[in-house]
Amino acid sequence: MLRASWESYRLRFTFLARTSRQAMRVKDTYFVRLWDDARPELVGLGECALFRGLSADDVPDYEERLSRACADPYSSAESGCSSIICGFEMARANLRQGGENLYFPSAYTEGQSEITINGLVWMGPWRTMLSRIREKLDAGFRCIKIKIGGIAFDDELDLLRRIRLRFGSDDVMLRLDANGSFTPADALARLDRLAAYGIHSIEQPIRAGQPDEMARICAASPIPIALDEELIGVPSDEEKRQLLSHVRPQYIILKPSLCGGFAHADAWIVAAEQMGIGWWATSALESNVGLNAIAQWLTAHHPAAIDIPQGLGTGALYSNNTPSVAELIPPHLKFKM
Known about the structure:
Number of helices: 9
Radius of gyration: 20 Å
Order of helices and strands: EEEHHEEHEHEHEHEHEHEHEE
Number of domains: 2
Structural class: alpha/beta
Helix content: 25-40%
Strand content: 15-25%
Distance between the termini: 32 Å
CATH topology of the largest domain: TIM Barrel
Largest sheet: 7 strands, parallel
């Protein structure tokens, strides 16, 4: 019989992590362990990466739901929490592979391939952001993701102008993440101004839950639009197809911990590819445990995606992160044998 237990863990950022919604110094996460009575020495480890303030999982009884899932691991999906579902998917995959650091074997875990990733630049004072951008470029990243919406818009435009004075679009790919900081009324005007700087794509220009407005913006925007938070809480495959068919984004961003787990992420990918919509995966600020599992899922289930810059370079965000089995040599993530 399967048994499970959980424990909480507080991750501490090495800096004040700002988005347009909140500023964070810590992030709470949960580790779940799964084993079989027949072989209790083999333990599967997963991460239930609750994202407070963003995820639909941010409910008062989250720990009670996690306890119920551990009491009956066979029905963990009934928790109704995406992060719990994903954490148990990780733990089951890890248990099947005999524990340790293996979740989904592939050429990546055998050291035969590597994942291209983007460099992530958080919000902050414009001089701080400019310094962070220079650090990412000097380190070797050629796809930079910049979170915007936390400082004056004109200052953000000036940052982009400074980058383009040094690096053209052929040299550096710029992705933006607005985290829903634009309004439906001002979004297109802002996108028009941003387009002058050769932007590859922008995530979630307006807040999720406005599909008609998002569809209008996707149809008229001079910059390709990527849906992120919009994918949270869409349970059925048919509803996924309906949302993508209605909104018609150019890209979707997949955070398995937020969009229903690995099986749901796979379903999003199937629906997107049928409609010619691009995608890439990113973390939901997991520890190295979840980051490792997501990287292995990506390379095992979708190996053709590893040359597209993925958002999996978040392992250095925390001062007390769990040990990593991934080695970051910008712009690539490699599995340490």
